Amino acid sequence: MSFSPLDFIRRRSRKYLRRGFGDALFQWKVSQYLLGYRLDEAGCVAERFAGMDVRYRFDSLPGRCVFLGGEYEEDDFGFCLDCLRGIETPVVVDAGANAGFHTIRWLKSRGDLRLLAVEANPETAALLRHNVLANNFEPRCQVYELALGDREGEVEFILSADDAFSSLIPNARVAEKRRVTVPMKTLDQLIQEAQLVRLDLIKIDVEGAELLVLSGAKNVISTFRPHI
Question: Which is it for strands 141-144 and 114-118: parallel, antiparallel or unpaired?
Answer without folding.
Answer: parallel
